[in-house]
């Protein structure tokens, strides 16, 4: 039931128009950070107000929304954003990746391959990949404009010098269509390859920093690296203990205070679907899990 | 035949400055400065503080835009006026063909980045993508400026002032720039540290055949490093010539004062 105190999806139409213009500009210039006038949302900044505004500007009454946080649909953050749009837009929601038309995410790209027509909206805390070494906003803008990206490799150089390998495991910088260097938001680098050549539209919203950027479908996205230290999308060297998946990103879960632990898919929908389909991991029980 | 005449015969100027002026409102920053610099030549610019030498250097290096005049650099595609060049091109030049050594190493170093990363940055900026080779060149350059290889992963904040300045020099020279600007490179250092740095700079200038423009108030610096000297007062060049000639037989009254150490700045 839509709360009539608000316009559809909370934001007024003028604000949505303004955000859509920024999104279209972002899609026209892949990887370029478009400034936009971020609005106050009825939730704190750390809760993904940038992503929420982008989602609000994209939603139509027939959309089906999925919201995930760290891959899970049932965390507080994901639940409250989902409820927010149910209340303000009255749209349908789902936990199934393939059923969603819009997926708002924090920290993950779903394991299930996205398809044409889907929109993936990322919540972005810090959109500027050069911020780490160059705090001046005027200077980082100039560096993007002039493609002065040597500094990104200085960051990776420092990583190798200190750790012997590129230790950056989240927020791993990418280059878009050979032009703009982009921060993919704090997804694990395991997810970086999924950024490239995706049939879905990928939109990135940073509320506090007032930036929107985008990857149109089938955009070439390359993770930065060195010839002698090539990019490696890494994950824990285990299979999922519940569904047995060998190729999904895993969370380590402490199971007791005797040091017991298990590895499970961070993408809860993916894991559940696999178990429902009869896949069983080391500690899983297909029948029980599937009948929940 | 003097060294300069030989160079004039042999080559085109690397750098030509013509009628350069910069005003701050009605106040003169520097006025009507012209000179040519030939490849392999080191030009010293001396004067007291407020003489306009720092303003001039900023205009030459593209940090300030002059009000009038041309600053022509002999680029890979021929002589180009860098004043009217597109900013992208000027910045590209500034990190490849040019180098700038600041008086305060903190202005020229990234203090949060290791010594190796500082030296490697210009290499990476022009496309170096092999970590091992970048590190190898960084170690080589640290050696050339007398910094031990085992300090490569230390940050500049752990270095003494003299070491920081040597690191800044290595960071600038690693890409073999064709023209180096230096702003009081020995300023702010203890006398004994200055002497060591000067000695090092002299070796680099000689070994690499550097072309450089050095602004300083320290006549000992230009005596050791500069082939040619320009003396500035109140924003204008009052005397210029071969360094030894100017220092040993100054013509202008102001230069005579400078040389006689009456003016100690
Ligand atoms: Zn699983």
Would you kindly provide a written description of the structure presented here, covering whatever features stand out?
The complex is a heterodimer of chains A (292) and B (265). Chain A is of the alpha/beta class and 292 residues long. In chain A, the strands form three sheets. Chain A has a seven-stranded mixed beta sheet with strand order 1-9-8-5-4-2-3. The C terminus of chain A is likely disordered. Chain A has eight helices and twelve strands. In chain A, helix 1 crosses helix 2. In chain A, strand 11 and strand 12 form a beta hairpin. With 265 residues, chain B is α/β, with parallel strands linked by helices. Helix content of chain B is 39%, strand content 25%. Chain B contains eleven helices and ten strands. In chain B, a hairpin with a 2-residue loop joins strand 4 and strand 5. The N terminus of chain B is likely disordered. At the A-B interface, helix 5 of A face helix 3, helix 5 and helix 6 of B.
Helix content of chain A: 25-40%
Oligomer category:
heterodimer
Number of continuous helical runs of chain B: 11
- Whole-Å distance between the termini of chain A? 27 Å
Report helical residue fraction of chain B: 25-40%
Low-confidence sequence ranges of chain B: 1-9
Number of strands of chain B: 10
Strand and helix order of chain A: HEHEHEEEHHEEHEEEEEHH
Features:
heterodimer, A: 292 residues, alpha/beta, 7-stranded mixed β-sheet, 8 helices, 28% helix, globular, disordered C terminus, B: 265 residues, 6-stranded mixed β-sheet, 4-stranded antiparallel β-sheet, disordered N terminus, binds zinc ion
Task: Chart the SSEs and their pairings.
The complex is a heterodimer of chains A (292) and B (265).
Chain A: H1 13-28, E1 34-35, H2 49-58, E2 64-69, H3 76-89, E3 92-93, E4 102-106, E5 119-123, H4 137-145, H5 150-163, E6 174-176, E7 180-182, H6 192-195, E8 201-206, E9 211-215, E10 221-223, E11 250-254, E12 261-265, H7 268-276, H8 286-291
Parallel strand pairs in A: 2-3, 2-4, 4-5, 5-8
Antiparallel strand pairs in A: 1-9, 6-7, 6-10, 8-9, 11-12
Helix pairs in contact in A: 1-2
Chain B: H1 3-10, E1 15-24, E2 27-37, E3 42-46, H2 53-60, E4 68-75, E5 78-81, H3 87-94, E6 98-101, H4 105-108, H5 115-125, H6 131-144, H7 161-173, E7 179-183, H8 191-208, E8 212-216, H9 219-225, E9 228-233, E10 236-242, H10 243-248, H11 253-259
Parallel strand pairs in B: 3-8, 3-9, 6-7, 7-8
Antiparallel strand pairs in B: 1-2, 1-4, 4-5, 9-10
Helix pairs in contact in B: 5-6, 5-7, 6-7
Bound molecules: zinc ion.
């Amino acid at each position: 039931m839509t709360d009539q105190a608000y316009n559809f999806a909370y934001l007024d139409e003028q604000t949505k128009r303004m955000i859509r213009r920024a999104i279209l500009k972002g899609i026209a210039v892949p990887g370029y950070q478009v400034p936009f006038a971020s609005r106050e949302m009825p939730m704190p900044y750390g809760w993904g107000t940038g992503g929420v505004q982008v989602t609000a500007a994209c939603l139509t009454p027939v959309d089906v929304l999925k919201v995930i946080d760290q891959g899970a649909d049932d965390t507080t953050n994901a639940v409250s954003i989902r409820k927010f749009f149910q209340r303000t837009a009255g749209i349908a929601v789902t936990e199934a990746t393939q059923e969603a038309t819009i997926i708002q995410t924090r920290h993950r790209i779903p394991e299930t391959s996205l398809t044409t027509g889907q929109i993936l909206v990322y919540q972005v805390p810090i959109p500027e990949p050069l911020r780490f070494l160059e705090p001046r906003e005027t200077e980082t803008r100039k560096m993007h404009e002039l493609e002065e990206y040597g500094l990104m490799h200085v960051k990776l150089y420092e990583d190798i010098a200190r750790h012997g390998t590129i230790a950056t495991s989240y927020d791993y910088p990418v280059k878009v269509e050979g032009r703009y260097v982009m921060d993919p938001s704090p997804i694990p680098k395991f997810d970086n390859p999924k950024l490239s050549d995706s049939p879905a539209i990928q939109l990135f919203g940073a509320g506090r920093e007032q930036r929107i950027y985008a990857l149109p479908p089938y955009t070439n996205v390359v993770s930065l690296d060195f010839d002698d230290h090539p990019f490696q999308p890494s994950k824990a060297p285990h299979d999922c203990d519940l569904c047995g998946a060998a190729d999904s990103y895993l969370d380590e879960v402490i199971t007791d205070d005797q040091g017991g632990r298990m590895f499970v898919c961070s993408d809860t929908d993916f894991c559940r679907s696999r178990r429902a389909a009869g896949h069983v991991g080391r500690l899983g029980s297909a029948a029980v899990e599937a009948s929940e | 035949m003097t060294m300069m005449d030989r160079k004039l015969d042999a080559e085109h100027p690397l750098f030509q400055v013509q009628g350069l002026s910069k005003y701050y409102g009605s106040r003169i920053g520097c006025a009507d400065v012209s000179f040519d610099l030939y490849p392999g030549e080191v030009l010293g610019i001396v004067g007291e503080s407020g003489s306009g030498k720092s303003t001039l250097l900023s205009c030459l290096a593209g940090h300030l835009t002059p009000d009038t005049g041309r600053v022509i650099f002999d680029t890979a595609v021929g002589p180009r006026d860098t004043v009217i060049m597109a900013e992208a091109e000027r910045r590209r030049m500034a990190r490849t063909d040019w180098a700038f050594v600041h008086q305060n190493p903190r202005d020229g170093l990234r203090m949060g980045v290791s010594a190796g990363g500082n030296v490697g940055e210009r290499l990476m900026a022009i496309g170096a993508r092999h970590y091992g080779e970048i590190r190898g060149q960084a170690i080589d350059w640290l050696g050339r400026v007398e910094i031990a290889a085992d300090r490569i992963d230390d940050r500049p904040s752990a270095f003494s002032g003299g070491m920081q300045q040597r690191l800044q020099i290595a960071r600038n020279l690693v890409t073999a720039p064709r023209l180096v600007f230096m702003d009081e490179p020995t300023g702010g250092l203890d006398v004994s540290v200055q002497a060591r740095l000067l000695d090092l700079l002299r070796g680099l200038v000689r070994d690499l055949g550097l072309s450089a423009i050095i602004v300083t108030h320290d006549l000992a610096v230009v005596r050791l490093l500069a082939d040619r000297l320009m003396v500035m007062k109140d924003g204008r060049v009052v005397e210029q010539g071969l360094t030894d000639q100017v220092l040993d037989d100054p013509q202008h009254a102001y230069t005579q004062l400078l040389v006689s150490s009456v003016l100690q700045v």
